Amino acid sequence: MAKSLYICYFGVREPLVRTQVIAYLRELQTDGHEIHLLTFEPVALTDTGETEVREQLGEIKWHWLRYHRRPSAPATLYDVFNGARFVAKLLKRHRFEILHARIHVPMMMAAIARKLSPHKSKILFDIRGFFPEEYTDAGVWPANGLLYRTTKRVERWLMNEADAFVVLTERAREILFPESEASGADHRQRPVEVIPCCVDTERFEQAAKRDIGSGDRFVLAYVGSFGGWYLTDEMFEFFRVARLVDPSVFAMILTQRQPERAVVGLRACGYGDGDFLIKSVPPGEIAEYLGSAKAGISFIKNSYSKQASSPTKNAEYLASGLPLVANIGIGDVDELIATDGVGVLIERLDADGYRAGFEKLRGLGDIAERCRASARERFDLTTVGGERYRRMYRRLMGS
Which residues of 268-283 are buried (b: 16+ CB within 10 A; e: fewer)? Predict the structure, then answer.
């Protein structure tokens, strides 16, 4: 049994933290580990708010610091050193065996805190994505510019300091740790695990089907945000072409942000008010809405950094029995669709490519059970994500 501190550079109420942090921590608790969680909150919590969070977290021991947004780089540096100081204090008090750092900024806190502390915890670097490359691919930083080069130097130091690694995709493992595919360890015999974004597949399979007013029409679903890495214009164009091929198509978009943008986009694609549902849905209710759909769309900008991406929406779609409609080059999605036969890959992001993809989608027939089986095998929270994290902790503890 280990005592660990999970460091997360997000607020505890973020949907991502609920589904991709706390859910995994509860899985680790099943092995008897004592779990502490440090989050960074964008606004100060009231005493009542703190009490509610602690009650929801149960036996997970929660700590928090304020998150600082602006100016971007100085604010992040302040959070890094403030976080490292706080982690060092917690280390002195609790003597954690494992510091579990989710992405690069928390990893910096963990590495600095260990330097400051006489207690030398093991550090698990939960890499998640190619952080420096994401910023250059998105055009935020100039390619090979000063910020990129500096961050890469810091990243090399963090990789050297880590005692174990988690990545989201086999593609990321092949790039970072090719030697680990056979041995499960890097060239220094440090453990490496591939843990994709997982979901509670049983909950999605058993969710009651929500009536969305679509009747027996062909419902195309999209879950998530717009813009940034998400190919929003391409997604709407797919909706437009699908409706040209099959006028009965019904669009369902579940998003936490900019629902008005979805309304404008769908109307421009020829959808009337009775042809779509756009709704902001809590994470716990998404499964009920997806139960009414026939397929799920996942279009993400194809770039070098996205080889490390494991979209949570893909796991949600499959667990709901929905085939995927995805563009090529994102994480392990190409291999997933080709091997498991659970959707269609759009190779050309134009009208002809969308038409061919939608016609192929309609020709797949009823493959709901095949999709659910794929989700259980690849993305189940307990048997895949939870088990691999438990295995990683056991390896770090030498048992």
Answer: ebebeeebbbbeebeb
Closest to 275 (Cα-Cα) out of 284, 266, 283:
266
Q: List, for residues 27-80, the tens digit of each pLDDT value.
A: 999 999 999 999 999 998 899 999 999 999 999 999 999 999 888 888 999 999
State the Cα–Cα distance between residues 101 and 124, nearest whole angstrom. 6
Q: Exposed e or buried b for every residue in 173-194, given b needs 16+ CB within 10 A?
A: beebbeebeeebbbeeebbbbb
Spatial separation of the C-alpha atoms in residues 295 and 325, rounded to whole Å: 7
The mean per-residue pLDDT over the stretch 203-227 comes to 93
Distance CA 54, CA 39 (A): 13
Three-state DSSP at 37 gives strand
In this model, does residue 156 exceed pLDDT 80?
A: yes
Cβ–Cβ < 8 Å for 17, 26: no
Q: Where are the domains of the chain?
A: 3-196+380-396, 201-379
DSSP H or E segment with residue 268: helix 259-268
Class of 201-379 in CATH: alpha beta
Condensed to tens digits (0 to 9), the pLDDT of residues 326-378 reads 999 999 999 999 999 999 999 999 999 999 999 999 999 999 999 999 999 99
3-196+380-396 maps to which CATH number?
A: 3.40.50.2000
Whether the CB-CB separation of 226 and 261 falls below 8 Å is answered with yes
Q: Do domains 3-196+380-396 and 201-379 have the same CATH topology?
A: yes
CA 64, CA 84: separation in Å to the nearest integer? Answer: 13
Q: How far is CA 268 from the centre of its chain?
A: 30
Whether 90 contacts 66, CB under 8 Å: no
Distance from C-alpha of 359 to C-alpha of 372, rounded to nearest angstrom: 22
- Give the whole-angstrom CA distance, residue 46 versus residue 52: 10
Beta partners for 360? none
Which secondary structure element, helix H or strand E, spans residue 358, and what is its range? helix 351-362
Residue of 313, 327, 329 lying closest to 375 (CA atoms): 313
Q: Write out the H or E segment, with its range, that includes residue 251.
A: strand 250-254
